[in-house]
Amino acid sequence: MELIALISLAVFIAAVLRGLTGFGFALAAVPAMSLLIAPSRAVTVAILLQCMVGLRDTVRMRALVNRRALVLMTIGAVIGTPLGILALTRLSPDAMRIVLAVLVGIGLAALMLKVRLGAGRRTAIGAGFFAGLFSGLAAMPGPPAIAYFLGTATPAKNTRASLMVFFFLTSLVALPGLAWAGQIDRQSLIQAAFALPALLIGTWAGGQAFNRLDEGGYRTAAIALLAVTAALTALRGVAGLL
User: Does this entry carry the keyword Transmembrane (predicted)?
Assistant: First the structure.
């Protein structure tokens, strides 16, 4: 039970980030959980959690999503996700931790540099492909998807809704591959089920904090949390490889 409690704490912290910024759950949850369990299991638990909460998000936000962009990006994600899952099954746990730290670093750079991509069919499919690749490898579809939506004229409320629904869709796309690879088992299902309340409570708490912070404040908080997570994960990965 101690392990489940620690996993739930990691999920809660990541969920606060999710509620605070509208994205970033997997960017924080997977590296944090990989300090406690194997990175491949951390990826599986994060994807299961996003599937569990995603249906609620879809129902609540269906009127706000950018449907055209979601369709095109999902097509790309269907292509990229199997490649990410293949890499997930071939890398050692410590190598996975290094990869996770690098991916979080990419997300941080995108946030800090405000990387933007132009709208368009090819760009949307390409963003979806890399989001799927990141999703299958590390349950982290965020950086490519965020970069795409920030590069369009989509209003903030529609961007946030589209991202949350897209993360749900990429998680659904990843499920069959994870099952085929033998990553979904009784233990991962139990860990995800016990951590679900932490995800819901953390998302609510993050939303409350968002209402009290200006744009600069919550952006700084998100970047700081991701930086700490990436540093800890990289240090453990490097120590394991040495």
Answer: yes
Q: Which two tokens stand for residue 227?
A: 């930086």
Q: Model-level pTM?
A: 0.77
d(CA 135, CA 138): 5
Q: Degrees (nearest 5) of the Cα angle 125, 127, 131?
A: 115
In the block, residue with structure tokens 């950018």: 66
Take residue 165 and report the two structure tokens written for it: 């629904």
Give pLDDT tens digits along the chain (242 positions). Answer: 788 899 999 999 999 888 777 777 887 888 889 889 988 899 899 989 999 998 888 888 888 888 889 999 999 999 998 888 888 788 777 777 777 777 777 777 776 777 666 667 888 999 899 888 887 877 778 778 877 877 676 677 787 788 888 888 888 888 888 888 888 999 999 999 999 999 999 989 987 887 787 766 766 766 776 677 677 767 766 776 66
